[in-house]
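Supplementary notes for students who missed Thursday's class. We covered one full example, reproduced here. Read the sequence, then the structure, then the short commentary at the end.
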Amino acid sequence: MSTRHGDPAMAQRIPRRLRVARLIGELLSPPPILVVLALIVAWDSSPTPAMAILWGGIAALFASVLPYALILRGVRQGRLSDKNISVREQRIRFGVVAITSILIGLVLLAAFDAPAEMVALVASVAVGVACGWVITLWWKISVHAAIAAGAATVLLLIFGPALLAVWPLVAVIAWSRVQVGDHTTAQVLAGVALGVVVNATVFTLLR
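Structure (token representation):
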């Protein structure tokens, strides 16, 4: 039985540091981060809880839930290597699908007069994913690091210096990606830089 299916003997031979890194990569992966971020921004920018659920739900659905569902389907059908799409060539193909989904969500938010902060958030995600996709044509930049740093940047812009407290999580996520062997240090640092620059620019301009 493979480690993936929970062989206790094999699991014991895996260093604890690696097991922790894998767990962090699962719990703090882009899909849950984007869902939580969308709901937080919606709650902060919407006039009523009902509207917050509506706008946050639309953003979360098209920026996170739908792309992740398509990833899981691709893994089940054998078209994608794993939930993190570790193979760079597969990331290139799937990136087009993800960008399309995010843009549909952005159009819906803009068309139905969502709060400016929600439009700015999804636009930031769209630009970030598009930039990451272009880089991935040549180099496997860390999407985990980019999304985490982008989310931390948005929270800092909205809520101020108190949200510097989330940045250690960005460092932990970056560490985990290197530990599991999915990225080099340079790739996670580039992801952090991409997330910060894109979100600080696009979100600030559009909010």
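Commentary. The chain has a mean pLDDT of 91. The first helix runs from residue 8 to 13. If anything here is unclear, bring it to office hours.
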